[in-house]
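G., the chain you wanted modeled:
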Amino acid sequence: MTTQILSAPEVYQGQFGDFTITKSDRTGVIIYRTGLMIAAISFAIGSGLALFYPHNPVAIQAITPLYTCFSLALGVSLFTIHIYMKLLHQILQLFWIIGSISAFIFGHFDSQPFAITIYNQPLTLFGVGFTFAALTGIFFKEGFCFNRLETKILTPLVPLLLLGHLAGILSTQAEQILLGIWVIFFLIFALRKTVQNIPADIGDKSVFDYLENQRLAKQ
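Predicted structure as tokens:
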């Protein structure tokens, strides 16, 4: 007869008390990181097509489903990320929703391919740009929490490229260079997340409990 011994879950000491990390917590982190990886790969492929095959109609058309994959994966990450400030978390999710709706409209109600529409009509970034504002929020959070060099570079780079294109102050070559840097560091960021300790992404659960209790007490 075989006896199976189940180890007790590890207890962590938080700022406002002890807590344990459940299987559900770990699954959430894995989903968050998987979403980031899919988003980074989709973005890299789409950007590569735009950079190296800008005059190939098939390549430009392929950017549309790649962007859809990027956006959906980013949405999954935004709904599974751990952020202490609930309001900030909700704002990032709202940004993603606004950006997704805008992308759907531009992608289905314009005769040109999605990538061409966004590039040739910079004002569309007032809608689609919200998706990248949400992505920048993730970069900022990761840079603040884990002191990641790549996210410290991406946090100012993303708005610099988008706002620069919107204002028409960047040359085509400058935009291509910035986009290439974005792709490289986004991939590095996603890859480094895969080997990071899972509890680090969950954070101090006692803080989440404390903030939730504070919110309930005000109701």
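Strands lie at 11-14, 17-20.

Shout if anything looks off.
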